[in-house]
Amino acid sequence: SVEIELKEKTLKGNREEVKVILRNLLKNAIEYNKKGGKVLVKTLKEGGEVLIIVEDTGIGIENRKIPLILEPFVKGEESRGLGLGLALVKRIVQNYKAKINIESEKGKGTKVEIRFPQKV
User: Fold this and answer.
1) Half-sphere exposure of 50 (CA within 13 A, CB side)
2) CA-based torsion, 10, 84, 56, 38: positive or negative
3) Model pTM score
4) What range does the domain containing 90 cover?
5) 33 with 70: CB under 8 angstroms?
6) Which of 12, 21, 30, 120, CA to CA, is 20 to 30 A from 94?
7) Edge-to-edge strand order for the sheet containing 49-56?
8) Could you tell me if 100 and 112 are in contact, meaning their C-beta atoms sit under 8 angstroms apart?
9) Which segments of the chain are extended strands (E)?
10) CATH number at residue 48
11) Of 61, 88, 60, whose CA–CA distance to 72 is shortest?
């Protein structure tokens, strides 16, 4: 199931780029989830920043692999993609001078948090 919690509905930026971010984060959260797992998408404002958070109850990522998944052509073992989705997310996030943080626990799930400065 996918749950959406929108506390902040305004993010100044290119609509298509924001769609790319959300599409890729959601695709991964769903693709690497467990059967019957959950995905939570949240937006909120905190300390002058707008946050997009995507959490899942999926298979998780080994700590040593977390820095690598944002690089081009790196993908999960069971992925059919090219490994470009998160690299594209990283590029867009950098263009907005935003920050991306990934927390994950193998077998329990992953949380991706993107912090956009209020003025982009």
Assistant:
1) 18
2) positive
3) 0.88
4) 2-117
5) no
6) 30
7) 2-6, 39-46, 49-56, 109-117, 99-105
8) yes
9) 2-6, 39-46, 49-56, 99-105, 109-117
10) 3.30.565.10
11) 88
The residue behind tokens 């991964």 is 28
Helical residues (DSSP H) of 1-120, grouped into ranges: 15-31, 85-95
Rounded distance, CA 25 to CA 76, Å? 14
pLDDT per residue as tens, the chain (120 positions): 899 998 988 888 899 999 999 999 999 999 999 999 999 999 999 988 999 999 999 999 988 888 888 887 666 655 555 567 888 999 999 999 999 999 999 999 999 999 999 765
Residue with tokens 């059919």: 80
Of 54, 43, 27, 42, nearest to 109 by C-alpha is 54
Residue with tokens 């991706």: 112
Burial of 1 (0-12, 13-18, 19+ CB in 10 A): exposed
Q: How many domains does the chain have?
A: 1
- Please give the structure tokens belonging to residue 23: 């599409």
